[in-house]
């Protein structure tokens, strides 16, 4: 899911006519050397940050090239306005690439502002985020897909807080099957159409990594699923919403969004540093 984070997006729109034999020379601009941030902090947890360098849009993306992009010698610091700490690089096979900077002093709290700074190779990036108040799910239940005897989607219901703009993100983890939480196919949601109302919608599993194909992945009878229901701030939503549009359209050469992915990273970088106001709901699918 992070391929778009690891590349500098170059928009290319072309129609290939089979009868043409003329060669096409493409002058693709150099994306420059940037720090790519994929970081987050949630209430009750320490910060986690994956850092890589970017690569050209048409470069080869596989497990070996991905590992080569990791910035293991960067300095990453976090402050909440009072306390400051330096994050520690640890190897963690639950993520890919399996190197992640983690905090061990500052714990996320709802309502606070957290500023991240990363330095590498003479370049510096910084970003700030907040952790909004969490919202609880009212219920979650499983419904079989038409024509299937074991596969289906999970339906969620919750009540959106009134008189305020809210943004959401959903992740799931299947017990004994998933090493960590993965995003659902719907990566971000805003309450523009249901502010202050009770709302319900379905979710399916998203891809586990950028090397996975994008498509609907259903839950299954027998799964025990932990649902991580998150509130996020507007810049965090803008990133995931634009990322989602680009990811879904990338499989269709005639449906490009013709826009860059939004970022809240300032300086020589791109990506996202985001806060999560998290609540959990556990569902045993029978």
Quick overview:
The protein is mostly beta strands and 286 residues long. The chain has helices spanning 63-68, 234-249; strands at residues 35-42, 48-53, 75-79, 84-86, 88-91, 99-102, 113-120, 123-130, 137-144, 151-159, 167-174, 182-183, 189-190, 198-203, 219-220, 224-232, 266-267, 269-284.
Features:
five-stranded antiparallel beta sheet, globular, mainly beta, 286 residues, 18 strands, single chain
Query: What number of structural domains do the residues give?
Result: 1
The rounded distance between the terminal residues' Cα atoms is: 30 Å
H/E order of the elements? EEHEEEEEEEEEEEEEEHEE
| Count of β-strands | 18
The number of helical elements comes to: 2
Flag low-confidence runs: 1-24
Share of helix, binned = under 10%
Sheet having the most strands: 9 strands, mixed
Q: Which value, in Å, is the CA radius of gyration?
A: 20 Å
Basic shape: globular
What would the average pLDDT be, to the nearest integer? Answer: 85
Instruction: Find the structural class using helix and strand composition.
Output: mainly beta
The percentage of residues in β strands lies in 35-45%
């Amino acid at each position: 899911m992070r391929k778009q984070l690891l590349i500098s997006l170059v928009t290319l729109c072309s129609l290939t006519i089979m009868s043409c034999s003329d060669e096409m020379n493409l002058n693709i601009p150099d994306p420059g050397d940037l720090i790519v941030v994929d970081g987050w902090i949630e209430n009750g947890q320490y910060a986690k940050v994956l850092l890589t360098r970017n690569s050209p849009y048409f470069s080869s993306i596989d497990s070996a090239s991905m590992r080569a992009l990791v910035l293991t010698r960067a300095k990453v610091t976090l402050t909440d306005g009072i306390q400051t700490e330096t994050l520690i690089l640890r190897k963690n096979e639950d993520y890919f690439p399996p190197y992640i900077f983690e905090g061990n002093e500052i714990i996320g709290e709802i309502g606070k502002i957290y500023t991240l700074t990363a330095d590498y190779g003479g370049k510096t990036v910084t970003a700030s985020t907040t952790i909004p108040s969490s919202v609880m799910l009212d219920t979650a239940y499983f419904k079989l897909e038409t024509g299937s005897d074991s596969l289906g989607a999970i339906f969620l219901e919750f009540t959106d807080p009134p008189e305020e703009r809210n943004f959401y993100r959903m992740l799931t983890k299947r017990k004994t099957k998933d090493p960590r939480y993965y995003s659902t196919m719907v990566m971000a949601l805003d309450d523009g159409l249901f502010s202050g109302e009770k709302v319900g919608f379905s979710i399916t599993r998203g891809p586990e990594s950028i090397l996975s194909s994008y498509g609907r992945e259903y839950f299954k009878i027998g799964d025990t699923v932990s649902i991580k229901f998150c509130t996020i701030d507007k810049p965090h939503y803008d990133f995931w919403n634009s990322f989602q549009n680009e990811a879904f359209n990338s499989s269709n050469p005639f449906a490009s969004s013709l826009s860059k992915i939004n970022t809240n990273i300032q300086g020589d970088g791109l990506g996202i540093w985001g806060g999560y106001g998290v609540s959990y709901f556990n569902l045993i699918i029978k």
